[in-house]
Amino acid sequence: MRLKDKVVIVTGSCTGIGKAIAIRCVAEGGKVVVHGRDGAREQGEAIVKALGADKAVLHIEDITFEGAPQRLVATAVNKFGRLDAIVNNAAMIVSSDVHTTDLPLFRSIMEANLMAPFAIIQAALPHLSNARGSVLNIGSVNAWSGEPNLFGYSVSKGALMTLSRNLGDTLHREMGIRVNQLNVGWVLTEKEAERKKAQGLAEDWYKDLPRVYAPAGRLLKPEEIAAAAVYWLADESGPISGQVVELEQHPLIGRNPPKN
């Protein structure tokens, strides 16, 4: 029970990585706020039912709405009486490049992927300080430069990485709150499977991947990201703060070129 009695908000947790993290948190003795947007209400209700109403509560709202961060934090405190940790997982993933990313789209991506996580942290500061709690931001390996057709998303994740390092230093020294980030690689989530099929790939596209992209012969699983997340939310990670860790199946720098 590595998270015994800890209360954790996991944004974007009705599907994919966030769902896996919420389930793992409860399995480790924690209590969670399951969060999603309007279209995910049915999925979120099913997760809360499976986890138990005494261990999970659902909050449905777009995190970019005015006052949404405060209401999300209030859901945790009103239901469980405290707040120990935040997992900023929700993100806007949209395909666009330098030619197709206009300023309104760029602003909406940054609002969802950078400004909203910051606002949630800010709203939770008194509670996280009391608990000497932690924040785990879920980033992406695209933060290092990203793909041409994921321009806005990649830039937002690079900015989130700087936010994690900056607050990981400042908040740890001033308030005892740790802030860290996981930059995840290619993960087989429900939405990723849908995106690739929409791009014209076969139904089972993920079963035969080039080893240059997936040396293990498969993609990462959401449950594997959740297993890593627990360490950063638990007390066993000690005083470590301001760190960014890559969760990918090959190195991003200095990789040996694949042989033909």
From TrEMBL:
Classification via Pfam families: adh_short_C2
Database matches in InterPro entries: NAD(P)-bd_dom_sf (IPR036291), Sc_DH/Rdtase_CS (IPR020904), SDR_fam (IPR002347)
Record protein name field: SDR family oxidoreductase
The species this protein was found in: Chitinophaga defluvii
Upper classification of the organism: Bacteria, Pseudomonadati, Bacteroidota, Chitinophagia, Chitinophagales
